[in-house]
């Protein structure tokens, strides 16, 4: 499969078998400028969207610090499955934590909000402390035969992408086997692999990202595409995006599951 990692067949098979009589929603995420911000910090586009209200130079400095840490970690140590805490001292971990917090503050909570949204997609449950509503057909009952999976398809090369997952605290939500790199093969090919993996009658796919490549790939697969928007006030950014909004995109392509249940 080129430069990508994939979940062991047994794990995928278990997910599909568990949803034979239920439903599986697969959320396919872009990484850069979607779940994390890096390029837009480095080139000033993030600050530019705020029309002078953000210090562009501070954003560039934050981006350069992330870039340095990513490169250093790629060159020195990389053990995705075992995590960072097993290999680095408390001082280094504190430095990374502080940079994460500084970045999250500068971006008005983009990182922590995106991470929280990933967790909501995994559970299908709304956050009781927020206004996020469940997507169409999402069941809160722990007994319901309904599953969700987060998959990451990044255009970057694999190792730096996995390092970003670790540093930006995504590794606890997206397993290493659910990270794909489209660097060599393109996103359409990655999407086709994902469709083959999660092949069951009641599966729904939704792509979330900011770029033209994942948009065109989603169109080719006839999957809904949610375009992330950096501009403040948008409902398609973090914080801002909700499961209710994503549910609308699901229903446009797949129809309302509740309507199908009524027919039965």
TrEMBL record:
Cofactor binding: number and manner: Binds 1 Mg(2+) ion per subunit.
E.C. no: 3.1.3.48
Catalysed conversion reaction: O-phospho-L-tyrosyl-[protein] + H2O = L-tyrosyl-[protein] + phosphate
GO cellular component labels: nucleus
Keywords: Hydrolase, Magnesium, Metal-binding, Protein phosphatase
One GO-annotated biological process of the protein: cell differentiation
EC supergroup of this enzyme: hydrolase
Cofactor: Mg(2+)
Gene Ontology molecular functions: metal ion binding; protein tyrosine phosphatase activity
Record-annotated active site: 30, 32
Leader peptide range in chain numbering: none
Residues that hold Mg(2+) according to the record: 30, 32, 210
NCBIfam families assigned to the protein according to its UniProt record, in alphabetical order: EYA-cons_domain (TIGR01658)
Similarity section: Belongs to the HAD-like hydrolase superfamily. EYA family.
PANTHER family associated with the record: DEVELOPMENTAL PROTEIN EYES ABSENT, EYES ABSENT
Protein name stated in the entry: protein-tyrosine-phosphatase
Protein source organism: Juglans regia
Lineage: Eukaryota, Viridiplantae, Streptophyta, Embryophyta, Tracheophyta
